[in-house]
Every structure is written in C-alpha cells, then in structure tokens.
Amino acid sequence: MSANRFAFFNGEFVPIEQAQVSVMTAALNYGLGVFEGIRAYWNADDAQLYVFHLREHMERLKRSCAIMFMELPYSVDDLCNLTIELLRREGFREDAYIRPLVFKSDHTIAVRLNNMTDAFALYAVPFGQYIPGSAVRACVSSWRRIEDNIMPSRAKVSGGYVNSALAKTEALLNGYDEAIVLGSDGQVSEASAANLYIVRHGALVTPPITSDILEGITRRVVAELAQAELGVQVIERPIDRTELYVAEEAFFCGTGAEVKPIIEIDRRPVGNGEVGSITARLVELYSTVVRGQAPTYRAWCTPVYAQQ
Known about the structure:
The chain is α+β, with helices and mostly antiparallel strands. The chain is 25% helix and 29% strand.
C-alpha cells in the first residue's frame, strides 16, 4: 500500500492510484518533462509541517518550463496553494518530499517540444535521508556532465537525469556513496544530483552557475548562512579536480542531499578524514533553519496546517 493517498492530476485532486499515464505518453518515451524536488519538515514542538523555500522552487519550475517550451495554466501562487492543499489532505506528521511534474502528455511518435500538450501532476511522499549516513565517500566519475548546449542542467529536465543515473550507478557499484562529475572542460561540476562545496584556506568554494550545474536553491541558502551566520567567505570559481584532494573540507548540498559531509574522495581522505568544523556547523544550522526553528529565517518556511 502506498504511503501517500492523493495526487493533483488532470486539474483535480484524485486518489494516487488514479494518477496514471499511458505507455504511449511522449514524456515516458522521450524524457520530455521538467520537475522539482521540494522538502517539507515536521516540527514536533510546533506541531507543524514546514515547506522549505516553496515559492523559490515553483519559480524555478517555471523557468524550466520556459526552456522546454512548456506552458502551465497555474501561476506560482497557484502552484504553492496546490502544494499546501495536497499536504493538508495527506496529513503528514513527518518529513515529506514533494514532486511537481510538467510533461508532454500526447500519445504520439514525435521527438519535438512544439505543438504538444502540456500536463501537470503533483504528489508527495514521506521522506527521510536521500544519501544515507552522516558522511559519505565519493569518487570522480568517468561520466562527464552534460553541457548547456546539449541538455541544460539549469533546467530540471527528466531526460537529463540519465546522466545523473549513470554517474551514481557507477559510484555505487564501485563501492562509493556518491559521484562527483566533471564538466567537458575537465573541471569540477557537481554531484549526480547535488551541488558541491569545498573549503580551501578557510573559505567556501563552489563552481559557478556557468559550470553546467543546477542553480541550486540549497546551494544559495548555504552561501547565505555561511556568510551571515558563520562569517565564512564564499567564492564562486572553477575548481580543478586535484583541488578535491587537497581541500580542507567538502560537502554536497541539495534539497534531497541537504548538507552532506564528504570525508573521502577517490580513496583520499578529505582533510583529516573526519567532518570538518565549518561543515559540521552548516549541517546543524541548516537542520535548524529548515524546521522553522530559526526566527531569522522563518520566512523561508511555509506552514501547512492552520495555526492553533
């Protein structure tokens, strides 16, 4: 039995079992869809479920649609309201993951984006850790990151995640927890489905948005928290592969990954092989912020249930 009960599908809320598509659907055959991954966090003290950066995710969904010749009949406000209503119907009292999906729904043999019908679906499921464990071991993948002129990484395109799946699978089969993918220029891009930070000379360093990465919302949150709360400098610049081997600290970040420390890369310890002090502070701070426990950043958290 499914852990979730409902979906928003074909313009209405339906039982999750009714949210189905044909095997002839263009999106299923050709990967013609865009999506978001959004987290909601349960705060037991407040008896409240908080959706983290809901509006920012829906704005990014709209940008992905623009890249992929997709039109939605819903505004960002509409999408946010639909999400809150879905979660209220589910009644989750635990952490959850929300998946809005826009896809080409025609039943046709046609590889194109224009003159096609766009559909929207939305569902949510209970969700814990995406990458298990308190820290991870990573490898540099033999697979290169797709380029913007091939498959735009700044859009969350369904078909583009084949690249991510190849890198992640290779890492897992080789005994690692996650992959680090290089761009076509040989410089560091990101993980299979997360952004990357390293610490060098006490500063946080991350590849720029022109390095074929997803313009991560968590990536931006980490930069803001590091500067405002920890007083740590944040630098966006290209990162060479061998910088990974001499970094003082490293971590992945993303909606799914959250802030996940890296303690080993290509069988080389990161720093002293333990979670570094900056990373540890960011892990703790991020966890506090997303659960609505930091008053300064409460505006980033959208409450689901009516306040008592």
